[in-house]
């Protein structure tokens, strides 16, 4: 059988060297190392008062939520804060478009992660007709100016686009349909968006062209292999921040006190069942 001709999108997302199966033990070992570095990054952010803002955008099912989960699961929620805003309220619809995001920008000593961001206007809102073409054009003109102001204020801004192939997106959406543990992940918008692959491709390309500016470029991650994608993103993220790990303190536990005259009182307490 001859090779089938690949369309531009399939060719763009073809497997690269190193996209093979990654064993769970190897993945977990690499992830543990990277998460240790994220803790070192966290302590540097606290120590220096750095401000980091990370934007995650991408195709539906590309793995934004899973990647964010692995970034934050071993760090402090007081430092790493995830922002996933719902649809705007009627009042917010009357505001300057980016206004509701400004309140969530990081202060000193914070890392803020946007699970989708102001770039909704350049993606889903544009494709699904939730805004006018003029509103999209105005946003694409203004976004680089806002991001330049963020950089001028000392915010380190990192923007990630997670890309997944058509075949893998189909497989993941079908999994959500058929697995009762995943049905909550499937929204009517996901179903409606599925048929508009190339509308999203065009919107993405225009967004890149307008907002891939020097101070805040887009970084693209292929996530057909979720495990490799997560490791690659976290590794790259760490490489973009000039953090300096601090030597671990030499901590010794003190001797625990003697019970003295303490005795447990006879209380009627409600212990939970222990079926396991």
Could you give the count of β-strands?
Answer: 5
Q: Whole-number average pLDDT?
A: 92
Helix-strand makeup class = alpha/beta
Q: Give the spatial strand order of the biggest sheet.
A: 2-3-1-4-5
Shape: globular
Note poorly predicted spans. Answer: 1-17
Number of helices: 11
Q: Give the C-alpha Rg.
A: 23 Å
Question: What's the helical proportion of residues?
Answer: 40-55%
SSE order: HHEHEHHEHHEHHHEH
**Biggest beta sheet summary:** 5 strands, parallel
The percentage of residues in β strands lies in: 5-15%
Could you give a short description of this structure?
Helices cover 43% and strands 12% of the residues. It is of the alpha/beta class.
Detailed description of the structure:
This protein has helices at 8-12, 24-48, 64-72, 90-93, 99-102, 124-127, 133-152, 166-178, 188-194, 197-211, 226-239; strands spanning 51-58, 80-83, 110-115, 155-163, 218-222. It is an alpha/beta fold and 276 residues long. Strands 2-3-1-4-5 form a five-stranded parallel beta sheet, sandwiched between helices. Helix 2 packs parallel to helix 11 (226-239) and helix 3 crosses helix 11 (226-239).
């Amino acid at each position: 059988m001859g090779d089938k001709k690949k369309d531009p999108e399939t060719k763009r997302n073809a497997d690269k060297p190193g996209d093979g199966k990654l064993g769970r033990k190897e993945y977990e070992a690499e992830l543990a190392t990277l998460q240790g570095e994220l803790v070192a990054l966290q302590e540097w952010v606290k120590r220096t008062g750095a401000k980091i803002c990370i934007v995650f955008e991408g195709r539906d099912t590309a793995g934004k939520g899973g990647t964010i989960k692995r970034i934050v699961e071993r760090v402090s929620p007081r430092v790493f804060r995830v922002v996933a805003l719902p649809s705007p309220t009627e009042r917010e619809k009357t505001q300057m478009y980016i206004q509701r995001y400004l309140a969530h920008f990081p202060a000193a000593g914070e890392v803020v992660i946007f699970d989708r961001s102001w770039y909704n206007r350049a993606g889903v809102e544009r494709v699904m007709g939730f805004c006018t073409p003029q509103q999209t054009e105005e946003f694409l003109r203004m976004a680089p100016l806002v991001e330049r102001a963020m950089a001028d204020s000392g915010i380190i801004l990192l923007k990630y686009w997670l890309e997944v192939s058509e075949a893998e997106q189909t497989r993941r959406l079908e999994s959500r349909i058929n697995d009762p543990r995943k049905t909550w992940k499937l929204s009517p918008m996901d179903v409606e968006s599925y048929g508009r692959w190339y509308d999203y491709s065009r919107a993405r390309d225009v967004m890149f062209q307008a907002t891939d500016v020097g101070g805040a470029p887009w970084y693209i991650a292929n996530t057909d292999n979720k495990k490799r994608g997560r490791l690659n993103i976290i590794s790259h993220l760490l490489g973009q921040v000039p953090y300096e790990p601090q030597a671990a303190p030499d901590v010794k536990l003190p001797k625990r006190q003697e019970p003295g005259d303490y005795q447990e009182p006879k209380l009627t307490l409600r212990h939970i069942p222990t079926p396991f």
